[in-house]
Write a structure and sequence with these properties.
- This protein is of the alpha/beta class.
- The chain has two domains: 143 residues, Rossmann fold (3-Layer(aba) Sandwich); 146 residues, Rossmann fold, CATH 3.40.50.
- Helix 2 packs across helix 11, helix 3 crosses helix 4 and helix 7 packs parallel to helix 9.
- The termini are far apart.
Amino acid sequence: MTTRRELLVALGALAVPLAGEAQQTAKPFRVVYLASASPESAGHLWEAFKRRLHELGYVEGKNAIFEARWALGKVEHIPGLAKELIALKPDAILVLTGIAARALQQETTTIPIVFATLGDPIGTGLIKSLARPGGNITGLSSLAADFSPKLLELLLMAVPKVSRVAVLSDPSNPAAQLKNIQTAAQTVGISLVVMEVQTAAGIENAFARIASENIRAAIVLASGLFMLQKRLLAELATRNRVPTIFMAREYPEAGGFMSYGSNYTDSVRDAASYVDRILKGARPGDLPVEQSSKFELVLNLKTARAIGLTVPQSLLLRADRVIE
């Protein structure tokens, strides 16, 4: 005859695998990324984001599924990729560019969207305010529009005698960056030559014009296309001996002369912390947008030598990183 104790032991043995099975079949969180650029140009940011989530306890293949879609610099592909990702019914979406965020905003008002590095999330209509974003979107702002005049200031420290500066601008991005630089240029008496660029061929045409018009300095504003083509930009600027400033350290790392802006890797890691809070129950609209407080100046001295530029000591002393 089976005793009460033996019966309880037997039932307990059955319960253990049942509990384990329930734990294994718990639905993993699905986190996706809509990228304007390519894995080659921005894949390191996606990896940094996933590493941070791993640190926070999300293990791919166990309690998390990660998927990315890459527009490869072709803005016309972004709306279709946004629809594709929404169809996956993710638990959270990461974006780095305004055009990707806007495409997703048109597709969902419920799935949480977390942005990183956006320059003007209020002006683009993504959120209501920094303190109370509202809706399903929140994240981190790089304040690109606010610090964009600094690009001109730093460039003029490197090449103080120029009177004309080319500005490469992607018209699919918010115009606030460009407007603020134009205001700053008027203040100091610099003539800006604005060139709207939307393709790799457009980048080549812009530098052909820079060379033909003998423009001796350039500013490249933020853009997924420009990030995708950062090596082409660096090559053309160096070949034409044009000191050029960019808005992220990835450009001088790829051979560009100089950059000033927030650290994108830090931003996506912070964005992962936002996603963690959302997956644990926080509402995106209640999470204040964090503003970048640290900006870094990166100089590539090898490129400076290649274009025949001697970098002033005053600029070197201000640099957060110098690439030899």
